[in-house]
TrEMBL record:
Keyword check for Nucleotide-binding: no
Entry keyword annotation includes Iron: yes
Annotated Gene3D superfamilies: nmb1532 protein domain like
Entries under Pfam families matching the protein: Hemerythrin
Family matches, as InterPro entries: Hemerythrin-like (IPR012312), RIC_family (IPR019903)
Start and end residues of each Hemerythrin-like domain: 93-229
Protein's name according to its UniProt entry: Hemerythrin domain-containing protein
Organism: Maribacter polysiphoniae
UniProt GO cellular component terms: cytoplasm
Organismal lineage: Bacteria, Pseudomonadati, Bacteroidota, Flavobacteriia, Flavobacteriales
Record keywords, A-Z: Cytoplasm, Iron, Metal-binding
Highest taxon, organism lineage: Bacteria
Compartments reported by the entry: Cytoplasm
Amino acid sequence: MITSNSSPSEITQQVRCTEHVFNRFDINPYNKNKVLDNTVLTEVNPDFLVDILNVFCKYKELDSCCFEMYPVPVILDYLKRSHAYYMEKILPEIGQSISILLSNYPKSHPLLEILYKFYFNYKVDLKEHFSEEEEILFSYAESLYKAKYFKNEIFFFVDFLQKYSINDFIDSHSDTLEGLENVKHILLQYNPPVTNKSSFRMLVGKLENLEHDLRIHAYIEDEILVPKLYLMEKSLKLEFSN
């Protein structure tokens, strides 16, 4: 079990994919100081980071009770950092792995069209998905939090909450995992030649890590953030009606 006294180096050696968690928080994954020491001069919540790491390492189940104690700004910070990291780091690495794998296949091989089409379409879809979340959900969450706890933007919400609800976002929210699951399933149906086995395993591993990461991301967004916003919205509406 990971604690705030564990070091990034120890954690990364146990489970390699946690390197990506540290990177998005601008913490050196091979630093030998405690997690607590690495966050003391930053705005990163060490307890939240430890809980996330334990989930990534599968030492702790994804459970709303584990994360519901954290305020909206802490949750939003993680989600925003993750969006940027997926687009700037993870997806380019997957694109590079696809190029390396396909460079050893003949141009007529069906995997070329399947993987290139998947990559470019998925990258566009994911960017649009994240932009929608940031422009609508995250912006709304920040304003809602300020209105609830700091009484900022109250007059804006008196009118706005009559026209918009967090349920509007839930009804229009799409899934980011379907395309990833489909291409992984197709990929695993192919038996790569001996010269391609290493690059094949590397690509599959990157896709599985992204899938695991996105499942955690979606859970925190759908099962932690959205219920918090719903309760704040309900409380403010009740306050305005009295």
